[in-house]
Design brief:
Strand content: 5-15%
CATH topology: Ribonucleotide Reductase, subunit A
Number of strands: 7
Bound molecules: fe (ii) ion
CATH superfamily: Ribonucleotide Reductase, subunit A
Strand order of the largest sheet: 2-1-7
Number of domains: 1
Length: 480
């Protein structure tokens, strides 16, 4: 990037970048490195295409969703925080009632930095995981949505990098560099959290990821949006406006897959949802395979919440750095020193729910709120199946199923929540998790559909276009 670039106009911001010389200089140094990362690890093969994207240029109604065609490397990634609330006070923990911090409190510096780095690391990771999906997009509409999610995850990285560079001096600049150096799935320098090193090889995985894993993102951002460190709270509050679209892409994506499958079953007189061979003959994804994908993605994502019982989580709550989901709506003392909370655990070979100290159960509570949110998604998916009068119901697996982190990481548990032996597990797990051949089958469907208005056979068209555009709209102008 050359010296004459005007960063003030290039970077939409409401943090007064023009007059913050130190921050500007840090961002100017980081920007070219970010662009290198984007070109190397962002959507593969589509960097020169004009894409119909939403850009946030300010946080008010008119400014945060401007639509137009841009090439992704020219996207105006910005630094936008929700407006400051006058007289905001810390809403939980031992500093409850004190004014929120505008600078990093020295005693919590390390803890805060860690929270931001872990959050920041997930953003570029998902872009890396999704980088090859453009090539197999089931439509231009879906391709555009993928790229929208990708540029916004890029902006979310910017959001955390802004905080690190603004408030953490040299350490922050080093962390900002490291965020561009780790790589999803890399053996030597992987991304920090497990789910962000998994592959996203096909579009069903992408839709599951944006349904379940972006929803974890929502829960994390909601709890950070409560933070007593005001710049973090305001940053996360604005990020949440974008996260809604990511979950929409996921939920409606899976919904359209389900709809297409049901339509094909009905049209061809297939009444048994478990007659997988008959269904697959028509090139759609059978419902039992969708169930297995739900099982897999739920388990991997629940691990992101960390151990159900956690001293770290208790500490960051106590410190006023990370609250609970919608903390301000909860009716308790917000200090939790004398409260308990029910947490599922393994006791004498069974899953039992026991009361533990509420402070240590912060992660368990956040994952409960997450599961409740996911249950609503299940209802919507099942409604589609019901509408087609097919007798099948999708459900979330038990929280203990297939876990690698926390209370259930050492045991084998069925999707119904029964503890079983390793032997039983090895006989049964292919009924619950996608097998190699299931995954191969899904991959075999991934033929791109790239003409305006065209959709691949395995997915139904959406109910409405983006920003009111018609069905045959050319969302991405491909270059030959
Ligand atoms: Fe994000
Ligand atoms: Fe997201």
């Amino acid at each position: 990037m050359s010296a004459e670039v005007n960063y003030d106009s290039l970077i939409p911001n409401n943090v007064d970048l023009a007059s913050d010389v130190k921050l500007r200089r840090a961002m100017e140094q980081w920007y070219p490195k970010y662009l290198d990362w984007w070109k190397q690890m962002g959507p593969d093969g589509f960097q020169d295409c004009d894409v119909y994207l939403r850009t946030a240029v300010s946080v008010d109604r008119e400014g945060w969703a401007q639509f137009g065609f841009v090439k992704m490397p020219d996207y105006r990634w910005g630094i936008l925080l929700a407006p400051r609330e006058e007289n905001r006070t810390i809403g939980f923990g031992r500093h409850m009632g004190q004014p929120v911090w505008q600078e990093v409190p020295g005693e919590y510096r390390a803890m805060l930095r860690r929270l931001m780095v872990v959050q920041g690391d997930t953003e570029p990771a998902s872009v890396e995981q999704q980088r090859f999906l453009g090539k197999t997009a089931p439509s231009l509409y879906d391709m555009r949505n993928l790229f929208q999610v990708n540029v916004e995850e890029g902006r979310h990285l910017w959001a955390m990098v802004y905080l690190l560079q603004k408030y953490f001096g040299r350490d922050g600049r080093e962390e900002a560099e490291a965020l561009l150096q780790r790589r999803s799935g890399d053996e030597d320098r992987p991304r920090i959290l497990g789910a962000f090193n998994e592959e996203t090889p096909d579009w069903l995985s992408f839709f599951m990821f944006t349904t379940f894993t972006d929803r974890d993102g929502k829960m994390q951002l909601e709890s950070l949006a409560q933070s007593g460190f005001d710049p973090l709270a305001r940053t996360c509050r604005f990020m949440l406006t974008e996260e809604g679209h990511h979950m929409f892409v996921g939920r409606t994506g899976v919904e359209r897959v389900i709809q297409r499958t049901c339509e094909v079953m009905n049209k061809n007189g297939i009444t048994d949802p478990d007659d997988i061979q008959a269904i697959r003959r028509f090139g759609v994804v059978d419902l039992p395979t969708i169930q297995k994908k739900i099982n897999f993605h739920t388990a991997v994502t629940l691990d992101l919440f960390g151990s159900e019982i956690s001293t770290n989580a208790a500490n960051s709550f106590n410190a006023g750095l990370k609250g609970r989901f919608r903390e301000h709506q909860i009716k308790d003392d917000h200090k939790l020193e004398n409260d308990t909370y029910p947490v599922a655990q393994v006791v004498d070979g069974e899953v039992k729910v026991l009361e533990v100290s509420a402070l240590s159960a912060i992660n368990a509570r956040l994952s409960d709120d997450y599961i409740a949110d996911c249950e609503n998604v299940m209802k919507r998916w099942n409604r589609v199946i019901d509408e087609h009068q097919i007798r099948y119901h999708l459900h979330l697996p038990h929280r203990a199923f297939h876990r690698k982190v926390g209370e259930f990481s050492e045991v084998r548990v069925t999707p119904q929540g029964l503890l079983i032996s390793d032997r039983e597990w090895s006989k049964k797990y292919h009924d619950w998790l996608p097998s190699e051949s299931d995954l191969e089958y899904i991959l075999s469907l991934m033929e791109p559909s790239l003409l305006p208005g065209e959709f691949s056979n395995w997915i139904a068209p959406p109910k409405a276009g983006i920003n009111g555009q018609p069905g045959e709209y050319e969302y991405v102008r491909l270059v030959a």
